[in-house]
Amino acid sequence: MLKTVLSVAGKPGLYKLVSSGRNMLIVEALDATKKRLPIHEVDKVVSLGDIAMFTEDEEVPLWQVLESVKTKCEGAACAVDHKKASNEELADFFAEVLPNYDRDRVYMSHVRKLIQWYNILVAANLTDFVPEEAEVEE
Q: Which residues contact 10 (CB under 8 A, 6 or more apart)?
């Protein structure tokens, strides 16, 4: 599921891949507007399935971190306000979610974005974060 959810540089929120053309992608906003727009090859696009968070040992795929947030928040939207929370509140929250995160390479702006993305995905009812490959391995 996370492979088709995209973050586009310079555009707020998350987008779902709808179609691809010769030199562009057609995406749909995951917010209430469901607005569709073209993303051209010059735009920087990242799939959430390709993102990982730094830990002291290795990089942890974003889907595992989102699963941890989902467990902590019991499947509901995160109670921590990513806009108003202090850096200490964010650090405490993230330490509960991913205890061995690398405090030198994971910035609080990353944690804010993670909480924002998690809340967007919950609002869009996209909470099945575990990829099919990982389910098969288990």
A: 43, 44
